[in-house]
Amino acid sequence: MDATSSRAVGPARTAGPADATGPAATATATAAEVPGRRTAAPADPLAPYLEADFPWYGLDEGWTGRRWLLQAGAGGHRPGQPRTIDYGSVGHGDEPPRQHETPSARRFAVVVTVARRPGRRSADGTGMLEATSASSAAWLAGSGLLAATWPGQLDRGRRQDWLDQQTAIAWDLADDLAGPGWSPLTLPVNGLPHPFRYRESEYGWVLAGEAPGVLLGAYGRSVSAYGIGFAGIPDLAAYTPHP
């Protein structure tokens, strides 16, 4: 990868998921009308999700626990122009810690939906963004897991060093989904079997693959990836905002 290109939805190598737009952020533009989509007020936590031109996915009806919004964001957004939502996450189970809190033993699964985008010019006009792929979803899922499970005994400075190191590893793994760091896993999507690539670590698990109209990633801890399934979200109101 040369210096003038980057992932269509991914940040620079050492950046983290905090680059995405948070669910409570104010919408900066009105997206084109999409049939069946309601118009959100600017302060509506669902606003970034409802601006998207692709379907959102979460765990299917087999999950009976809490559901919540995490983040939705625009990759390669050019300042002064209407943004295009390119990816976002919804959570299931225990909510993530706030920035000042230390991660603890939590049971959760997060689903990352990524729009299928062709290669296009970067926001600063200096290069081209790569087309999205399953690797894009794997990268976002891997960095999300790191942010949710960093070792609590680390101070702030050492935590950043740890995040930088582990993020670089997650980036390299995402670029090689066919490699030995991943294993195959078949899971239902809208009731039909779909192939995914899966890996485990001491921090939890990450998987990535495809779904109708989008790319899917997921990560979790203390929830078995082998027992989950994915489905299109019929009503985002079922997901409460993460405070």
Briefly, what is this?
This protein is α+β, with helices and mostly antiparallel strands. It has helices spanning about 45-50, 135-150, 155-175, and strands spanning about 5, 55-60, 65-75, 85-95, 110-115, 120, 130, 185-190, 190-200, 205-210, 215-220, 230, 240.
Describe what this molecule looks like in 3D.
Residues 92-104 have a biased composition (Basic and acidic residues). Residues 1-43, 74-105 are annotated as: Disordered. The chain is of the alpha+beta class and 243 residues long. The protein has helices at 47-50, 134-149, 156-174; strands at 5-6, 57-59, 67-73, 87-93, 108-115, 120-121, 128-129, 183-189, 192-201, 204-211, 214-221, 230-232, 240-241. The chain has one domain (53-241). The strands form three sheets. It has an eight-stranded mixed beta sheet, covered by helices on one side. Strands 1-7-6 form a three-stranded mixed beta sheet, with no helix packed on it. Strands 2-12 form a two-stranded antiparallel sheet. It is globular, with a radius of gyration of 17 Å. The model is unreliable at 1-42 (pLDDT under 50).
